[in-house]
Structure formats: C-alpha cells, structure tokens
C-alpha cells in the first residue's frame, strides 16, 4: 500500500489532496509490485502514464506558447523536447519524492529500478494523469507552476536565453576575450550527479555554477556572471 507520508508530503508541499486515493496509488505502482500483490487489486501505472503524457505535453506547450510569443515553431518544438525528455522528468519525479515512495516488486528493487530514469519519467507522467482525472487540468497546471515552470523560467531549457552567448557578446564588446568553463567538482551518485563549473575569462575567475549536467552548470555560471557584471 502507498505510504501515507507521500500524501502528507503532497499536501504540505503542494497543497494537493487526492479525492480518490486509489488513483494516485495506482499511478505509483509498478507492474512488478502489482504482480506480487494481486490480492490488493491496485493495478499499475501504465494507462495513467498514457494519459499523463498527453496532459503534460498540452500544458507545457501552452506555457511555452504564451511565454515566448516571438519564438518560431521549430524552436518551440526543440525547447519542448528538451523539457519533456527522460532526464528532465526523472529530476521532477525526484523533486516530488516519487523515487522514495513508488511501489515496486522485490526483483526490480534489487536491480535498482527505483532509480531508473525511464521508470521515474513514466511514473511522473502517470502521477499527472492521476491528478488530471481526480481534480482537473487547472490543478495540474497549478502543480506544474511549482515543479516544472520554474525550471523553464530559470533558463535551464530556454531556446532564447543562452546565457553563455549573451555573456560572450557582452565581454567581447571591449575586445577579444578568452572564455573557459572548467568542471571543478562532481557531487552525488551517477544516477543523480551534479556538476560545479568555474567560469574563467582571460585567466580570471568570474563565477561558478552548479547544474544537473555540465552544460547546465556552464549556463548557470554564465547567468551568475551576467548578473554580477
């Protein structure tokens, strides 16, 4: 059965209270757990994943359409693809503690499936499908405002907010500048690694950035440098 602490966490952190607790339990259940506990009659997440995939795509598409009114279709598509990719959804899933509370069979548990990005992506989609069925699209969108949209607003995925390019253009206004990004630290296990990058211009350290990938850390370092210039 789904740990009540997960429901308490959702309520305290996001103000979400499921009317039908069985639907979120199903969204959080892997088929391996369902097969081991048929007597519970929970089912698994897969049908809800199908629905959640569509719910997330339409909401994220609408958000991007409104946020970037001058961005052409091709760039909007590439931007959306970057947001809805496996690694991104897996990070969002961990942010709401899906990895901690999902129900999974003993065999899959031993094989490390709880930290498998493809599974976390699927469960995140299923969770949103369950939320949509239980409370409607407005509540889903409010949830995404707290979990997904802030990452878009910060420039993590932004097609038109390339902080590295903006920084290079600004620094080179007064002449040629040699810019280098150096990884100075890596934190966390392989499945959840974070990178710390140092931004160096003409031999001088301008800033540091932390990110879920080297590319993201470089962008965050450039963003900080722009803010301090």
Automatic annotation (TrEMBL):
InterPro entries reported in the protein's UniProt record: dsRBD_dom, RNase_III, RNase_III_dom, RNase_III_sf
One GO CC term on file: cytoplasm
Reaction catalysis annotation: Endonucleolytic cleavage to 5'-phosphomonoester
Limits of the DRBM domain: 162-229
Cofactor names: Mg(2+)
Superkingdom field: Bacteria
GO biological process: mRNA processing; regulation of gene expression; rRNA processing; tRNA processing
Residues bound to Mg(2+): 49, 122, 125
EC id: 3.1.26.3
Annotated ranges, domain RNase III: 7-136
Single GO MF descriptor: double-stranded RNA binding
One Pfam assignment: dsrm
Subcellular locations according to the entry: Cytoplasm
Catalytic machinery residues: 53, 125
Alphabetical keyword list: Cytoplasm, Endonuclease, Hydrolase, Magnesium, Metal-binding, mRNA processing, Nuclease, RNA-binding, rRNA processing, rRNA-binding, tRNA processing
Role summary: Digests double-stranded RNA. Involved in the processing of primary rRNA transcript to yield the immediate precursors to the large and small rRNAs (23S and 16S). Processes some mRNAs, and tRNAs when they are encoded in the rRNA operon. Processes pre-crRNA and tracrRNA of type II CRISPR loci if present in the organism.
Subunit structure: Homodimer.
Family affiliation: Belongs to the ribonuclease III family.
Name of the protein this chain belongs to: Ribonuclease 3
Lineage: Bacteria, Bacillati, Bacillota, Bacilli, Lactobacillales
Gene name for this UniProt entry: rnc
């Amino acid at each position: 059965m789904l740990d009540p602490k997960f429901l308490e966490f959702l309520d305290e952190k996001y103000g979400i209270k499921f009317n039908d607790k069985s639907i979120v339990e199903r969204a959080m259940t892997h088929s391996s757990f369902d097969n081991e506990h048929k007597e519970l009659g929970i089912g698994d997440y897969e049908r809800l994943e199908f629905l959640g995939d569509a719910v997330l795509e339409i909401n994220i598409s609408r958000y991007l359409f409104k946020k970037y009114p001058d961005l052409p279709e091709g760039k909007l598509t590439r931007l959306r693809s970057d947001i809805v990719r496996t690694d991104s959804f897996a990070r969002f899933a961990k942010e709401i503690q899906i990895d901690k509370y999902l129900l999974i069979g003993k065999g899959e548990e031993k094989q490390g499936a709880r930290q498998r990005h493809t599974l976390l992506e699927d469960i995140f989609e299923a969770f949103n499908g369950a939320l949509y069925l239980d409370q409607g699209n407005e509540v889903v969108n409010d949830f995404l405002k707290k979990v997904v949209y802030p990452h878009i607003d910060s420039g993590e995925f932004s097609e038109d907010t390339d902080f590295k390019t903006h920084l290079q253009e600004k620094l080179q206004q007064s002449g040629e500048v040699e810019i280098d990004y150096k990884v100075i630290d890596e934190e966390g296990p392989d499945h959840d690694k974070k990178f710390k990058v140092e931004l160096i211009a003409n031999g001088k350290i301008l800033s540091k950035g932390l990110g879920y990938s080297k590319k993201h850390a470089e962008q965050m370092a450039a963003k900080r440098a722009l803010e301090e210039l």
